[in-house]
Amino acid sequence: NAGVIQTPRHKVTGKGQEATLWCEPISGHSAVFWYRQTIVQGLEFLTYFRNQAPIDDSGMPKERFSAQMPNQSHSTLKIQSTQPQDSAVYLCASSPGWDQDTQYFGPGTRLLVL
Amino acid sequence: GDSVIQMQGQVTLSENDFLFINCTYSTTGYPTLFWYVQYSGEGPQLLLQVTTANNKGSSRGFEATYDKGTTSFHLQKTSVQEIDSAVYYCAMGPSSGSWQLIFGSGTQLTVMP
């Protein structure tokens, strides 16, 4: 089992450019989560999907951020018009699908917006 | 609102010292509680998980006990080793219908040889 796969591992964008981050959950897991990690704010929940359907996006910034899960094998987090304050490590996690299940995290994508 | 508090931002110990990291939580009900460990350049990985059904968890020499009375979930280890150096996060599991984890601010543990 390869674990949660995130690509790219590092991404550098210029201010105003778009960034798309990819996540491949563990095979058979039905829930996929996105978190953001910064020194100042720590680990913050962004959004999650269950059986590909968006369930809770209460942590997503209302503008410029969107997430999708077009099939059970991958999810994307897209940031339009990136700003320096979007610089962070974006973590994807998956879980088998019961609410008390452990979430298994990927290695993260480190986004740097210049 | 729901929250998890870790007061110790950094802890520095010598090998074979006793480790104790405080964690308290605030929510309605009795959520599952987790300790995750994060090594440099990696995502958080589960260290242990405890529910009200079992009240105590242990893994790799680490122990944590769920105390509903004081809403605390401290992490301890009798004898730390240099390889234990990492960031430790207390997290609270699903409650109020959402499956998100709520994390504490993390404790950077450095173990000197």
* Proportion of helical residues of chain B: under 10%
- Cα-atom radius of gyration of chain B: 14 Å
User: How helical, in percent, are the residues of chain A?
Assistant: under 10%
Q: How much strand of chain B? A: over 45%
Would you mind describing this structure in some detail?
The complex is a heterodimer of chains A (114) and B (113). With 114 residues, chain A is mostly beta strands. Chain A has strands at residues 5-7, 10-13, 19-24, 31-38, 42-50, 53-56, 65-71, 74-79, 88-95, 104-105, 109-113. Chain A is 0% helix and 54% strand. In chain A, a hairpin with a 2-residue loop joins strand 7 (65-71) and strand 8. In chain B, strand 7 and strand 8 (62-65) form a beta hairpin. Chain B has strands at residues 3-5, 10-14, 19-21, 24-26, 33-38, 45-50, 56-59, 62-65, 75-77, 86-92, 102-103, 107-112. Chain B contains no helices and 12 strands. The A-B interface holds A 4, 31, 33, 35, 42-43, 45, 48, 50, 55-56, 58-59, 91, 93, 95, 99-100, 102-108 and B 32, 34, 36, 41-46, 49, 51, 89, 93-94, 98-106.
